[in-house]
Design a protein that fits this description.
The complex is a heterodimer.
Chain A (H helix, E strand, L loop, with lengths): L2 E12 L38 H13 L3 E2 L2 E2 L1 E5 L9 E5 L5 E2 L2 E6 L2 E14 L3 E3 L8 E3 L6 E7 L6 H17 L12 E11 L9 E6 L2 H20 L7 E6 L4 E7 L9 E2 L6 E2 L2 H10 L4 H12 L3 H7 L3 H11 L7 H22 L11 H12 L5 H12 L5 H8 L7 H14 L1 H8 L4 H13 L6 H12 L1
Parallel strand pairs in A: 13-14
Antiparallel strand pairs in A: 1-11, 1-12, 2-6, 3-17, 4-5, 4-16, 6-8, 7-8, 8-11, 9-10, 12-13, 14-15
Helix pairs in contact in A: 2-3, 6-8, 7-8, 7-9, 8-9, 9-10, 12-14, 12-15, 13-14, 14-15
Chain B lengths: L5 H9 L5 H19 L2 E3 L2 H17 L9 E5 L26 H8 L3 E6 L33 H8 L5 E6 L5 H7 L2 E4 L19 E6 L2 H11 L29 E5 L9 H16 L3 E5 L7 H16 L18 H12 L2 H14 L4 H22 L5 E5 L15 H6 L5 H6 L3 E8 L5 E8 L4 H14 L13
Parallel strand pairs in B: 2-3, 2-4, 7-8, 7-9
Antiparallel strand pairs in B: 1-3, 4-6, 5-6, 5-10, 9-11, 10-11
Classes of the chains: A alpha+beta, B alpha/beta.
Chain lengths: ~475, ~475
Amino acid sequence: MEWETVIGIETHVQLSTQSKIFSGASTDVGAEPNAHACEVDLALPGVLPVLNREAVEKALRFGIATQATINQRSIFARKNYFYPDLPKGYQISQFEIPIIEGGSLTFRVGDVEKTINLTRAHLEEDAGKSLHEDFVGMSGIDLNRAGTPLLEIVTEPEMRSSSEAVEYAKTLHTLVRWIGICDGNMQEGNFRCDANVSVRRKGDNTLGTRREIKNLNSFRFLQQAIEYEARWQIEQIEDGLPIVQATVLFDPDSGETRLMRTKEDAHDYRYFPDPDLLPLIIDDDWLVTVRSSLPELPKSKAERYQAELALNGPDVASLVSTLEAASYFESALAEFDEQTIKPAAKLIANWMNGEVAAALNREQKDFSVCPVSPSSLSTLIKRILDNTLSTKLARLVFEELWGGALSVDDIIKEKGFTQMSDSGEIESYVDQVIAQNPQQVDDFKAGKEKALNSLVGQVMKLTKGKANPTQVNEILKAKLV
Amino acid sequence: MFDKTVKELGNALRRKEFSSVELTQAFLDRSKSLNGKINAFITFDEEQTLAQARAADETLLKGEPTHLTGIPIAHKDIWCAKDWITTCGSRMLENFRSPYNAHIIKRFNDFGAVIQGKTNMDEFAMGSSNETSWFGAVKNPWDLNRVPGGSSGGSAAAVAAGMTPASTGTDTGGSIRQPAALCGISGLKPTYGLVSRYGMIAFASSLDQGGPMAKSAEDLAILLEAMAGFDAKDSTSVNNKQVDYASSINASVAGLKIGIPKEYFSDHIAPDIQKAIELALKEYQKLGAILVDVELPTSPLSVAAYYVIAPAEASSNLSRFDGVRYGYRAPEYGDLNDMYAKTRAQGFGAEVKRRILIGTYVLSHGYYDAYYIKAQKIRRLISQDFMRAFQTCDVIMSPTTPSTAFKLGEKASDPVQMYLSDTFTIAANLAGLPAMSIPCGFDQTNLPIGLQLIGNYFDEAKMLATAHQFQRVTDWHLKKPPLTTA
């Protein structure tokens, strides 16, 4: 019997605003507990919420970037429940009419392109934190996080495997950082996923009973949790046991999910429109302004790079993985004309994904703070394209640049890295190699193409890498044929 | 001095007939000596009060005084005032000292007014008799065996008894107008959104509106000038141009069209009230006003709609009183849920608990559409009724209450009878319209009767002038209850 896993994801994206969604307090959580909890965050008697425009703007950016419907009139509602870190006894969220409905995200899983439809995205406030470990017999409450703006993004149940779910989450993670609405810090909980998982027999059109795995704050946990949960559900059904709709938690240590509460103990949140807040009205001008302030999106850039620059899929995927990488790529590319742009693009991509990425990784940096500037990299690429540098020499130049040197051409001059291009000089080395390697010469003449590579290698070694390998190749062939 | 209006006292202060400290001390002394009888005040804080009076005297001496500089004003204990105990009439907040100022408190401070004390009120403004206060019932100065009305009963009684020159109240379903009527003073509930709700402890957010209570319409105008105005901290605050209510108070009522809704003149009204209202309307006709019949067909549903919407919002607004961060916490409890349950069971009184239960019920899954949504539809119809009526009239008049002040305890055990005492006042809150009550006579037992004026949105200036014209030719608002101090 073949089984199919059905997954929908809800992601809480913390919007990177200066102040909280309904108060003027700072969203910086690094402070002393409750240092950033003002009278509104503490829910003192008589205080009132005022919506932060910046949070709305960030939600709009997301809606536009996913081609969603922006509801130009949306409603804030109160979700009522008691918990010590929920100071008002209700969370201000959106229920019946969210700011964003629909939209989609497209990504690749292996070679297959997949589009996942979004149900909605709504604005809400985060709760505070309960600290159960720090006080004996008591709990501490830190309300610094209370009132931090969140965008909750909900998908349709359209994913069919843990890897699709992870690719969706990664694509969303890239997008929210790309459009500047979230810092993406998963350890801090600024991007956290809930996965709704159910299983059904292949070909079955009805959805199985789902269980929701809460608060997954890494892609690895997301993958592990879904896989465990799906396996568990299949075993249950195969053992003739029912699946009860429930909320579960994933324990990374055991790799298992465990029951938090079933639908029976679910709260009746008694949602109703918050009378303290007027309907949120988005006028056309505001939409136009936000639309024009959005950067070109990763998907569009990727398509453009492939069509205009003839780059391949994998190259492009890494170039558009962050806005910083794409900007770096584009500024490096800006220094080439129409004639050289395609080979330059290929080389820049190779270098960015190779040498540069490796060096950045080593020092745990990203492209926004890369010690080698895009213009230095493009000079380096120019010197490769005009045959001044071999790849090997270029690597040496790059090391110098990384170490703090500024000018590619100065390094070439100072270190004598110039590629040998005088064919007379190369010929003398070629002659020397032919004389010293009669066996390989005979092999080549007998038809063994590989022998030529060995001879080229000998010449390169003799010239300490300064000869142009293509030129060596040509001269060797001319002499031997 | 205790008979004088805010306007008169302000003039006297600026003429240096007495200082603010002298004036304030006199009112403090009188209100303290009467408070045992009337229980109008929950909190006095003489030190803070006199400090403000001294500062006001400085301003009177060498600054730029306003109409309110140096005038002691009593505030309903629903307004948060920095460093003042702010109880909202509840055990839940018995020891809550506010670390911040409500918007209107800040405004009064800016105008140089003096906080004389915090007045008694029904617990969390839930009540029409001031009997639900944790701090005991307020007595009506006209008859100490009767209620002053509620929920702003302390504010109304304090003005009526000459314990303070003027006070503030809040009105969710009649809580300014009904006690004003029952105590024989003037009170105004402004248009929803005119006075910031920031720092007013919320009962039902979409209905709550703060307003002034005083001896005359003219005083109301002076107080409203300080209270009204845009506040960025209240999203429902309206950003209108500031109006000078005092300067337009002499506008004539000649040609004014007064709408008379037949729904508000039913058999349920006490005959004395009926008579007093008719005489008041005759007085207006003498001044040149014209009476026109208007219809408010949905208004009989207003009490029912109100007792769905107001408790629904209250059940959520009062969730913050959970014993976690401030306020009362039960001294003994087991786990977290037990702490919540005991804290709220002990901290809230019966009427508050009743409304939390009603509100929780009507918002619950499966009942929401039948109650809450239905009530909101009725609310819209009520507003539409008024809009239709205001096409043919400038102001609507009716009795403020169906009866004069009732006996303490008379309706305390019958919530529905209690709720019906707001039957004429609630519709204005549901529609968000400005409404006021002014004294217009007495019944046979010498209890005051109130005339209600309901105006169109932001028509406060016209309403105040209309009330003032009546007070120029009548003296009901000048009558004093027969009280002896100490």
